[in-house]
């Protein structure tokens, strides 16, 4: 768990600007607000809430079971999180191609390919994650769920949030994740016949594969120098 | 026809003179309007300078534009109905030339002096609708089709206010002959004071406003430029035209503006004349022959003033939506113009 | 009235037709607006099925400008990403860098010094003014009034000169750094800013007179494209679009991040109607508010360094953070996943226009063709923001 100390941050008093109503809901001081949200969610979806991580006075992450991905959306919507921010996925596998910045004449070191998920853990290579905001209490929440490795399909959020339509289309096209119940799952950006899912880590970034990265100096030996003096000078 | 000059010009000479005169009367105003208003006035209103390179202060820009358009390739879309596609701009320009025939530039400087001049020009002025409609249809382009259909609806709708506004003038002048209308205006008197004549703009101010609005719509200028609607339809019915044909559309747009302004100045501002009181003439036969030379200059001045107003409104206002435009014509302009006719008739009989 | 899901599946079936043969003229006419078109702010393509002049359904087809930013960030170091994300919303481009830098600073647990925070906020608001003043001019052009746009460009030049004076770049400043700013302000910049803000407030008044007071403009905009508040929230509309539907939410006031909005007094404008007129009007008022914010903040720049002590090679510790700010187009946020490397592991760019335009199929049903342009103009998108 990462502890981000907030002592040096300025907390803006919410009641100093002109437009705040006297009876507009104020955020509770301290951590009680986010703890309360997690408890409320646990009451609504029970065991499906696998893990949560609170950054005090700052942010809130939860992870839910894959089966209740869509239910969580509905539960959070009734709990007050009515504003849909985004929905996407993370591929936790490190890229097998590296960054394409190494000198191609030098032998590459093997890359550590262990999959290590981030905040709130996880068990699969890919996770979907989404973000909602409660406009009245001024709280945002990030919800994650695992995507099964063998059959990457989760439920669609379009039942609760109509705006998830486009986000799920993009996620499907970029990561190859299917969404049950999505009315029209077709490509968002890429042409219909595009093969592959570009945001997955095993889909190479072609620009770096085709041409050595120009930032590597002295890959080409200087014309007048001996070839022994040429060599990689990695920056 | 110029008998005052006491020179017998053979008939073929007269015909050439008329043809050249017609071309000049149409193209020179168009050129002047384009340079003065489109290039310069619009630029100054938009806090920029306009064309400055071609010639001193950009005065040769028009020639450069004409040369540019004329040397372009003559392209017609594959699916277009080619004969009709090619005729459409000519039809639009045809109506302009037909209109200029009846406009008087001086007591004798008129190509054809019809007794029913008003009727003629109202009828002929709607030929351009045909041209626009067939341009839109024959382009085989959905944008053009939309533009053409919008144009048809709009131009037909705004013919009526124009006709009804003109009727007020006809009632007051008791004649459809354009020269007679000018004579009545310039020999008239306002409450006995003959110094200003009696330009119909003073008594027919409602008619004048309606006529100018209808002219704005007939020319498909903003705020009535739905048919062109540059931000939606690219160029509306003109989208597929390029080269010489586009030049014809372009010229036709501004030439028609000029001609309609000529007619408006005839109907409402006293045409080629100054109040006859200034020179002691009492009717049109008294007018000296030099009025045939000065008359066009006076007409040009009045025409530029009116076109200036048309262009000014064009550069300022956003455009109406098609249904708002139609509502404006049918539910507002036509009843008002009918009321104008009624009041004119009553006052004509009573006073 | 069909439910939203039925509407969605109807649109989907029609869009499937459209994909097959866009020129098929069965009942109604299928019209392609764009991708090359004078009206759309870039290469947005809208496929509309029309019945005469009325839209039966309309579906935007994005992706003509997709540059793959999220993939590109994975091979860059943190300072290099700033250059990239400048170009997402290219009209107010300083504003794009700020949430990313704040997210990286949050993960590194550092904070920019107060002087840098205030200058960041000032530049943020200047980019908002630059962006929205172009919007106000462009609004006229979409409606057919060709003159206000020149006034907008003329007055926007002053703001761009200011931004160039401080950062060196008119359009892509690339000025924000993790831990502060690249440089301090040049001499005379503060006085010039005060002058320019007066000019910009004058410009807002001028546009209000010229454009917003025009009866034709009002009749084109009022009552068109009404979006109720709950639909707006479901689709994730943000910025002026959300506030035009009556939702009182502004990230400048409602969240505490390391920008200096608490030092300035400003009003958050909302409008109950939710139509195109409300959206445009709110942006006009917000531009004036931005000028006032800048005028207040420019008096309060504290002395001090503009950069904290950061290591020369920046490695952001492991973690995830999401920071979003009230950008000119709406709410823009970056979800940064870092693994302790030189560069991010994954950056999810939450861009405002993507959500703003996703509402288009819903809102464009049954409107007239000219209203498509009006509604899109009032929703205000930048292609780079939709397509990233």
What does this structure look like?
The complex is a heterotrimer of chains A (235), B (351) and C (388). Chain A is of the alpha/beta class and 235 residues long. In chain A, 17% of the residues lie in helices and 20% in strands. Chain A is built from four helices and seven strands, in the order H-E-E-H-E-E-E-E-H-E-H. Chain A has a five-stranded mixed sheet. The N terminus and C terminus of chain A are likely disordered. With 351 residues, chain B is mostly helical. Helix content of chain B is 65%, strand content 0%. Chain B has 13 helices and no strands. In chain B, helix 3 runs antiparallel to helix 5 and helix 11 packs across helix 12. The model of chain B has no long low-confidence stretch (mean pLDDT 83). With 388 residues, chain C is of the alpha+beta class. Chain C contains 16 helices and eight strands. In chain C, the strands form three sheets. A three-stranded antiparallel sheet of chain C has the order 1-2-3. In chain C, strand 4 and strand 5 form a beta hairpin. In chain C, helix 5 runs antiparallel to helix 6 and helix 12 runs parallel beside helix 15. Chains A and C meet through strand 3 and helix 3 of A and helix 1, helix 2, helix 9, strand 6 and strand 7 of C.
TL;DR of this structure?
The complex is a heterotrimer of chains A (235), B (351) and C (388). Chain B is mainly alpha-helical and 351 residues long.
Sheet of most strands of chain B:
none
**SSE pattern of chain B, N- to C-terminal:** HHHHHHHHHHHHH
Kindly report how far apart the N and C termini of chain B lie: 38 Å
N→C terminal distance of chain A? 34 Å
Helix percent of chain B reads 55-70%
Whole-number count of domains of chain B? 1
Structural class assignment of chain A: alpha/beta
């Amino acid at each position: 768990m990462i502890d981000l100390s907030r002592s040096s941050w300025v907390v803006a008093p919410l009641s100093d600007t002109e437009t705040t109503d006297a009876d507009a809901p104020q955020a509770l001081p301290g951590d009680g607000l986010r703890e309360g949200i997690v408890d409320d969610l646990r009451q609504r979806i029970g065991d499906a809430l696998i893990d949560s991580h609170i950054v005090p006075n700052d942010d809130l992450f939860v992870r839910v079971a894959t089966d209740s991905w869509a239910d969580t959306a509905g539960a959070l919507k009734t709990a007050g999180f009515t504003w849909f921010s985004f929905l996407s996925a993370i591929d936790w596998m490190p890229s097998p191609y590296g960054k394409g910045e190494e000198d191609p004449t030098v032998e590459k070191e093997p890359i550590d390919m262990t999959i290590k998920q981030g905040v709130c853990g996880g068990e699969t290579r890919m996770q979907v994650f989404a973000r909602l905001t409660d406009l009245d209490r001024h709280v945002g929440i990030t919800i994650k769920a695992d995507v099964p490795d063998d059959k990457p399909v989760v439920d669609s959020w379009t039942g609760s949030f109509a705006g998830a339509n486009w986000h799920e289309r993009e996620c499907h096209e970029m990561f190859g994740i299917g969404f049950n119940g999505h009315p029209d799952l077709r490509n968002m950006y890429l042409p219909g016949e595009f093969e592959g899912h570009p945001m997955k880590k095993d889909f190479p970034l072609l620009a770096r594969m085709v041409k050595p990265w120009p930032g590597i100096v002295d890959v080409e030996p200087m014309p007048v120098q001996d070839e022994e003096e040429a060599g990689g000078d990695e920056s | 026809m110029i008998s005052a000059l006491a020179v017998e010009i053979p008939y073929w000479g007269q015909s050439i003179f008329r043809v050249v005169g017609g071309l000049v009367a149409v193209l020179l105003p168009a050129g002047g309007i384009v340079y003065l208003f489109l290039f310069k006035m619009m630029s100054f209103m938009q806090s920029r300078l306009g064309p400055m390179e071609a010639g001193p202060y950009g005065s040769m820009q028009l020639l450069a534009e004409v040369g540019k358009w004329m040397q372009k390739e003559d392209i017609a879309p594959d699916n277009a109905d080619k004969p009709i596609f090619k005729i459409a701009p000519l039809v639009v320009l045809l109506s302009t030339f037909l209109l200029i025939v009846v406009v008087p530039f001086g007591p004798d400087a008129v190509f054809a002096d019809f007794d029913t001049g008003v009727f003629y020009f109202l009828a002929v002025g709607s030929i351009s609708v045909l041209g626009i409609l067939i341009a839109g249809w024959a382009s085989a382009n959905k944008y053009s089709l939309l533009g053409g259909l919008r144009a048809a609806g709009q131009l037909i709708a705004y013919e009526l206010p124009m006709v009804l506004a003109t009727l007020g003038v006809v009632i007051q002048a008791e004649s459809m002959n354009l020269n007679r209308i000018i004579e009545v205006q310039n020999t008239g008197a306002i409450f006995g004071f003959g110094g200003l004549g009696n330009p119909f703009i003073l008594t027919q101010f409602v008619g004048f406003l309606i006529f100018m609005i209808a002219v704005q719509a007939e020319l498909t200028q903003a705020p009535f430029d739905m048919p062109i609607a540059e931000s939606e339809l690219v160029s509306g019915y003109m989208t597929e035209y390029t080269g010489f044909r586009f030049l014809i559309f372009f010229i036709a747009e501004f030439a028609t503006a000029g001609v309609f302004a000529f007619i408006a100045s005839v109907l409402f501002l006293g045409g080629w004349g100054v109040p006859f009181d200034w020179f002691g003439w009492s009717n049109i036969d008294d007018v000296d022959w030099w009025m045939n030379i000065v008359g066009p200059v006076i007409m040009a001045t009045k025409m530029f003033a009116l076109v200036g107003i048309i262009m000014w409104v064009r550069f300022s206002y956003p455009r109406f939506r098609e249904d708002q435009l139609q509502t404006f014509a049918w539910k507002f302009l036509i009843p008002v113009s009918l009321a104008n006719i009624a009041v004119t008739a009553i006052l004509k009989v009573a006073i | 009235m069909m439910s939203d899901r039925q509407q969605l599946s109807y649109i989907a079936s029609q869009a499937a037709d459209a994909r097959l043969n866009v020129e098929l003229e069965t009942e109604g006419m299928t019209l392609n607006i764009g991708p090359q078109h004078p009206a759309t702010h870039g290469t947005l393509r809208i496929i509309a099925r029309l019945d005469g002049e009325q839209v039966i359904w309309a579906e935007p087809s994005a992706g003509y400008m997709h540059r793959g930013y999220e993939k590109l960030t994975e091979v860059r170091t943190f300072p290099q990403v700033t250059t990239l994300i400048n170009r997402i919303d290219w009209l107010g481009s300083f504003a794009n860098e700020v949430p990313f830098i704040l997210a990286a600073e949050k993960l590194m647990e550092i904070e920019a010094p107060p002087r840098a925070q205030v200058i960041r906020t000032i530049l943020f608001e200047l980019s908002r003014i630059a962006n929205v003043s172009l919007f106000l001019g462009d609004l006229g052009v979409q409606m057919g009034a060709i003159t206000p746009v020149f006034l907008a460009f003329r007055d926007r030049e002053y703001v761009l000169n200011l931004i160039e004076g401080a950062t060196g770049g008119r359009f892509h400043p690339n000025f924000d750094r993790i831990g502060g700013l690249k440089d301090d302000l040049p001499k005379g910049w503060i006085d010039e800013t005060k002058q320019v803000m007066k000019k910009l407030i004058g410009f807002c008044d001028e546009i209000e007179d010229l454009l917003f007071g025009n009866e034709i403009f009002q009749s084109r905009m009022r009552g068109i494209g009404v979006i109720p508040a709950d639909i707006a929230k479901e689709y994730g509309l943000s910025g002026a679009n959300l506030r035009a539907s009556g939702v009182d939410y502004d990230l400048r006031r409602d969240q505490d991040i390391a920008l200096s909005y608490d030092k300035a007094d400003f009003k958050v404008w909302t409008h109950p109607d939710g139509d195109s007129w409300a959206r445009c009007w709110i942006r006009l008022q917000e531009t004036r508010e931005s000028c006032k914010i800048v005028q207040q903040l420019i008096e309060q720049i504290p002395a001090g360094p503009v950069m904290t002590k950061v290591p020369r090679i920046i490695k952001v510790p492991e973690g995830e953070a999401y920071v979003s700010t009230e950008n000119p187009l709406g709410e823009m946020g970056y979800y940064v996943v870092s693994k302790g490397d030189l560069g991010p592991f994954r950056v999810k760019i939450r861009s405002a226009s993507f959500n703003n335009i996703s509402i288009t199929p819903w809102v464009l049903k049954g409107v007239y063709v000219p209203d498509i342009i009006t509604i899109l103009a009032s929703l205000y998108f930048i292609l780079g923001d939709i397509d990233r």
